[in-house]
Amino acid sequence: MAARDKVNLYEFGKQYGFSVPADMMVNNLQDLSKAGEKLGYPLVVKGKYYEAYVNHTADVAQKSFHLLSAKWGLPVIAQQFIKGTEINIAGLGDGEETPLALSRCANCISPIKARPGQASQ
Predict the structure, then answer these.
(1) Which end of the chain is more exposed for a tag (fewer CB within 10 A), N or C?
(2) Full-prediction pTM beyond 0.85?
């Protein structure tokens, strides 16, 4: 499962020449605040294995942090938001350079909406 850990994405992209948005590992709300200051809003908050939310305010980002850290553990990843279509590609091979399967998912990020009476994203 560690190979799927999103904390490895930036280094993987750098190693293979892919453009990957800037990110920060977040272990607590202080880290999240620093990430918001450095990366700006909207801010993508991601679980370490799966699930991500686009957050337009610090309050909503905190809700995402709590939800994702409870579900997937720490660290949670805060990532720079880049407008466009997200495409996830996963491949499976036989270890001998023969591809066995390829999967693609577009538009996989779901926003967390503000509660009624709160500022919306």
Answers:
(1) N
(2) no
